[in-house]
Amino acid sequence: MEMVVVAPPASGKLEDLKRRFFATPRQAVISLLSLSVIVFLVWKLLNWAVFSAVFDASGGPDACHAASGACWSVIAARWRIIFFGLYPYEEQWRSALACVTVVAMTVLSCIPAFWTGRRIALVWGVGAAVFYVLMKGGLLGLGFVGEEMWGGLALTLFIFVTTCLVGFPLAICLALLRRSELPWISRTTGLIIDGVRSLPLISILFTFAIVLPFALPQWLQGDKLYRVILGSALFFSAYQAEIVRGGMQGVPRGQEEAAMALGLSYWHRISRILLPQAMRNALPATINQFVISFKETSLVIIVGFFEILASGNAAYGTGEWRFAYVEVYAFIAMIYFVFVFSLSRYGAFLERRMSVGER
Amino acid sequence: MFKLLRNQKVRNALLQALYVGALGALVIAGTLIARQNLAAQGITSGFDFLFKSTGWDLGFSLLPASANDPYWWYFIIGILNTLFLGSFGLALATLVGMIVGLAQTSANDLAKLLGRTYVDVFRNIPLILQVFFWYALITHLPPPRSAHEGWGMLLTSRGLYLPAPNVGGLALLAASLAVVAAIVLPIWLGRTSLLSRPLGQRFSVQLAAVAAALVCAVLFLFAGRLPDSPLLDLPSLQGLNLRGGLRIPPEFSALVVAIAIYGGSYIGEIVRGGFKAVGKGQVEAASSLGLTPWQVFTLVRLPLALRAMLPILANQYVWLMKATTMGIAVGFTDFFMITALTINHSGQTLEAIGILMAGFLAINLSLAALFNRINKAIALKGNQLRG
After folding, report:
1. Is B4 exposed, middle or buried (0-12, 13-18, 19+ CB in 10 A)?
2. Where are the transmembrane segments (chain A) (predicted)?
3. What ranges do the domains of chain A cover?
């Protein structure tokens, strides 16, 4: 039989382009359509955000009325209120430093060298303590600033960090209780987890902020901020518990049986054998859950907290800057985007890395 | 005593009783304290308040409502509003997600880039921020006097005004049912075994069915039209305000747009995953059998991808349904906002929270049950299962 040898296509740049985007008439139409949409959007966006935008705050709101593009001078004029809320002006460096602490903490916990239970707990414990002292003061010569003065990015980060700090251990407890061999314990825990998961987060925050004080004795009520954090931690832990449980189911049964045969106690079996492997399985989903719960901190605005979204509303809401709402929301969206996108990219990277190891 | 404690069975029973008992005691103690606190404020617990009139008005309602109506009626309106907003949001989000997902799975790198960018941008911005943004955008539109006009619609800061048919409610319902029939009938006719005509040759029957259903719809509309008025009620400016037409309030449109865009980015990822799950061999087999690309898509890739995405899609729908509670941020009277208002006005805190929980549980469970049924109905059976 005669073999037909087809010559490889000429490997010029133009040929390559033609093969990728104009192989068939249909492909060509899709390519041209997508290209025109991309060019249109990029041009519009650049024109609005850069070329005809006002960056200089010295002209005030009037300079913006004259320009057709974005009015970034609102950010220049109001960035302090967006980042720090009502925090006292002279002390705002503390708020900024506290935000940097959280970022440093997050970066540290992304490094594999810190992925042991003790080290990660140390990083987050120390980080949260530094954050708290910096924000609240009353120690080391720092002036006292009550929680009701906290606001902006620092409050958002505080709620996020404390939610995770409280929610994560709670999630592990719930997951262990749910897979308990005692039927009543596992069933009751399952009921709690599924009940919390079926409710919207807003209704839980609302219950903890406004309804819970009725159901608690005076001495147990605490500050509204900490009740809301507790509610958001409960919500986080209900979802995270299912993720941890999923990770535990991925650990082969033999592992635990071998540990039992070696005579390890329950706590050793859980902390040395089961949890490390389960957490490894659950890592991508866990990071996803962190991302979701970071986005959901913005919901505390509904129960009346001055977090970054509320301080953004305040930044454009008063008098002269009323027209500049698009710029303020775009700025806050960018802040969220930077945090959330880098975390989720990191999650995707981890997933790829781990799937390589399993091959 | 200690000997008894060493018995595994006794110990287990004790542990369980302790756990359940402690949780139960916590709940009971909370309820008792709450009742005591509420009683101190002069609020009697119980569900009697449901039959009292509310004394406050609703911003948005599908059914007639006034301040004289009782609380139970308001709760029903709230659930209906939530379902209404949810179904619009879900339908649009699915549409957006389908387009974005298809763009992402396209063989074309430019289309892929567009889809990828859409998902990355809108998935990483919190939903509530998007709700605020769209709400601010709509309420900053020009006032009615200088509204944007087009195709009989008016776009103003008070909402979107659409032309509305001057038709009685019952006739409108019948007409919309006829339109639904025009979509469902040809699909059913194409599959049923009740007709003697072979499966491939039913085009004329299907066409006739569509035509008949559409004629019925038009007839219903004409039969039900209100006397002495034009068939279409166009919105128009009278003085400083707009009269006539159907007004879609800014709260509703902001929420629908935000849910459609945000949900679309998540559903886009689900759609992409679904298409990725379709085995390459299936697609290659289909095209080697001589099916056209369109046939490969509609007969092989889409049905298989749908099955792969449905369970995840169901979770996403439940999530989006819960996201309608963002209504309270912009003042849309959904189920949650009505609960919050009830607590503010009547003080019946525990009862209202109980109703809220029961309502959402019911909505979520019925959504899950619906999707389970669909899932079972379309699951691949027996020898279809081979990959």
Report:
1. exposed
2. 28-46, 93-115, 122-144, 150-177, 198-219, 328-349
3. 87-149, 151-305
